[in-house]
Specification:
mainly beta; three-stranded antiparallel beta sheet
């Protein structure tokens, strides 16, 4: 049996509210960026808060537990290098490609 290695980075957050109301239904998007060959996942557990929420409804005793995990590229593999994803050595300290502007 093959098991997944543990995450290199893990971020967990909990948000609680006695009462919560949304004036408008929020638009929620989750985007990951970075060099190729990483694996990210998110999960959330909601208590007393449906998905999606409704506008102008009072929700009481709300709790949201959120977890983000990320496994970085295996250092024994060669990363994919493309114009959109340059090698780390091609980046200057600001995270942008060096060269003439």
């Amino acid at each position: 049996m093959h098991s997944n290695p543990p995450a290199d980075i893990e971020f967990a957050a909990t948000v609680k509210a006695d009462q919560l109301r949304f004036r408008h239904v929020p638009r929620v998007d989750i985007h990951f960026s970075g060099v190729p060959d990483y694996r990210s996942a998110t999960s959330s557990r909601r208590t007393n808060l449906p998905d999606p929420v409704a506008a102008n409804v009072d929700y009481h005793d709300v709790r949201v537990d959120y977890l983000l995990t990320n496994r970085l590229r295996d250092p024994d593999t060669t990363p994919t290098v493309t114009p959109d994803h340059p090698r780390e050595s091609d980046l200057d300290r600001t995270g942008t490609c060096g060269g003439g502007h």
